[in-house]
């Protein structure tokens, strides 16, 4: 099965949009948070006893607050052309050069 969205493509959204346009800051924040929250989920799920002691209540609370902020940002931009472009890019990024 081929996936349109991979972990690597999501993490790269805030670094290399692959197209020249100016994104709304909310869109940029959403793209950046995708990768950060994915990393946080993996740390929480798979690093049961993390060696740095970062996974704890305050850490988890911070990630929840970050996710809430992302949903708030999405609510502000979800009906814009930029949001539609962002979603298309998210879906088709891996097919860009094929």
Low-pLDDT parts are: none
For the CA atoms, what is the radius of gyration? 15 Å
The overall pLDDT average reads 77
Q: Give the % helix.
A: 55-70%
Taking the sheet with the most strands, its summary is: none
Content of β-strand: under 5%
Distance between the termini: 17 Å
Overall body shape? elongated
Alpha plus pi helix count: 4
Order of helices and strands: HHHH
Number of individual domains: 1
Overall number of strands: 0
What is the structural class? mainly alpha
Structural commentary:
The structure is a single chain. The chain is mainly alpha-helical. 61% of the residues lie in helices and 0% in strands. It has 4 helices and no strands. Helix 2 packs antiparallel against helix 3. The longest helix has 22 residues.
Write the layout of secondary structure elements.
Layout: H1 7-11, H2 25-46, H3 57-77, H4 81-92
Helix pairs in contact: 2-3
Short description:
This protein is mostly helical and 98 residues long. It has helices spanning 7-11, 25-46, 57-77, 81-92. It has one domain.
Using brief descriptors, characterize the structure shown.
mainly alpha, 4 helices, 98 residues
């Amino acid at each position: 099965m081929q996936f349109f969205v991979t972990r690597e493509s999501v993490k790269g959204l805030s670094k290399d949009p692959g197209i020249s346009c100016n994104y709304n800051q909310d869109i940029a924040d959403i793209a950046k948070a995708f990768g950060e929250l994915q990393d946080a989920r993996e740390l929480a799920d798979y690093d049961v006893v993390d060696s740095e002691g970062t996974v704890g209540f305050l850490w988890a609370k911070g990630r929840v607050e970050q996710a809430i902020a992302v949903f708030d940002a999405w609510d502000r931009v979800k009906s814009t052309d930029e949001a539609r472009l962002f979603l298309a890019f998210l879906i088709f990024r891996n097919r860009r050069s094929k």
